[in-house]
Amino acid sequence: MALYFDRLVCLSFLLLLVSISHTEGELVALSKADKQIILDTHNVLRARTARGETGSQPSAADMMLLEWDDRLMEKAANWASQCKVGHDTPAERVIPGHKWVGQNWAGGHSTNLSLFVDLWYVEHNDYNFAAKTCTPEKMCGHYTQVVWSRTLLVGCAAATCPGYLRILVCDYADGGNVGTYPAYESGSPASKCVGEYTYTSGGLCLRRDQCAAMYTGGGRIGGGVDGGGGTGGADPGSAPSPTTKTATTTSAATTTTFDPWDGWTFDDGYEYLHGEEAKTKRSRVRRGTDGGCRCAIHCLNGGTLDSANCKCSCTPDYYGTRCEMTCSDPEMFRSNCESDPDACKTFPMFCPKTCNGCKAGDIRDKAVVNTDGVLARLP
After folding, report:
1. Is 186:200 a contact under the CB 8 Å cutoff?
2. Which of 34, 186, 214, 349 has minimal Cβ neighbours within 10 Å of its Cβ?
3. Is 277 helix (H, G, I), strand (E, B) or coil?
4. Measured between alpha carbons, how far is 47 from 210 in angstroms, rounded to an integer?
């Protein structure tokens, strides 16, 4: 592990720690299994935070299930191929329908891509949720992006670069780390799901169409073959195959085989996702749910629940996923909403009644590109 960490560089959002000259690298083609492992790792860690199992961090009331997007992967690949430490500009990674796309970057001497995501997540030790700040002189921006609740899409790319066996770049839409907003809303898991994400499983908010993919397929998280990028295909309830140690460091005299997971324990002393622990972790996630999806919403302010479709029918005075919002234009904007003919073009969010009759907008991006059919799930 010392060897690995000696060569590891992680950069938090908007913070550049190291400058290196521009050098073209070699992109690593990600297989479907690679993509699945990266996405699974994100969703397992988001679910862990949602359930309040992340150190001292509170549980999350609105943590969404992430899904894979090839458009973000392509943007990440454009940057990863340049082998520059740090981040590209926000304009270079934006995709249609998303004004702000976030980014995490890491580089090191391991080909286990899920390990990079885990290392971002470990920064929770330096995140003060109440103050919405990092510990002084510490980084926590990777963690907050991984668990930014309203982020719905992720796409990542890997490359081999001078000085690094692998770098991993992940782009997120919509991006997190915005102003002084918290990474998520604290509260009972999935108690404040929004938009079409009205179902829950494992503490996450998800759409009805995503329920079928939950716990299906199999890939292992973090226990994949070093150098192979993951296994996939195993039954979720079966024991994973032993970790194969193939990553090597070579000198003129010797070849040393090492496993970046050996002896490494995370925040609670848990031998995280290593060997048989992968099975234990998966079982623990599954035991914490009813084995599938359930409707997560409760209607407020006199609204009635259509349980068959998991939707609230609100009274005329309220709207929103849970009928939680008053159907009126805020008093401070009301006169502008009613008198300005361009109000609904320039600031529709301030005139919900005038502009759209208090209809809650959809938050799902229906233009997602996922050519390999990577499953949004909890393995």
Report:
1. no
2. 349
3. helix
4. 15
Task: List all residues 6 or more positions away from 201 whose beta carbon is below 8 Å from its beta carbon.
Answer: 211, 214, 289, 290, 292, 293, 294, 378
Q: Global pTM?
A: 0.73
Altogether, the residues listed in the chain come to a count of: 379
DSSP 284-328: HHHHTS-SS-EE-----TT-EEETTTTEEEPPTTEESTTS-EESS
Question: Would you say 208 and 199 are in contact if contact means Cβ atoms under 8 Å apart?
Answer: yes
DSSP character at residue 101: E
C-beta atoms surrounding 371 within 10 Å? 10
- Can you tell me the distance from the alpha carbon of 303 to that of 369, in angstroms, rounded to the nearest whole number? 36
3-state secondary structure of 178: coil
Burial class (CB in 10 A: 0-12, 13-18, 19+), 55: middle
In order, the DSSP letters of 9-56 are EEE-TT-----------EEEPPPHHHHHHHHHHHHHHHHHHHTT-STT
Domains and CATH numbers, the chain: 26-214 (3.40.33.10)
Give the CA diameter of the chain: 81
Which amino acid is it at 104?
N
What's the CA gap between 64 and 231, in Å, rounded?
A: 25
Q: What is the pLDDT along the chain (379 residues), one digit of tens a residue?
A: 333 333 344 543 333 333 334 457 799 999 999 999 999 999 999 999 999 999 999 999 999 999 999 999 999 999 999 999 889 999 999 999 898 999 999 999 999 999 999 999 999 999 999 999 999 999 999 999 999 999 999 999 999 999 899 999 999 999 999 888 899 999 999 999 999 999 999 999 999 989 877 766 543 333 222 222 222 222 222 222 222 222 222 222 322 232 333 333 333 333 334 334 444 444 444 333 334 789 999 999 999 999 889 999 999 889 889 998 888 888 778 888 888 888 787 777 778 888 877 776 678 898 999 999 999 998 7
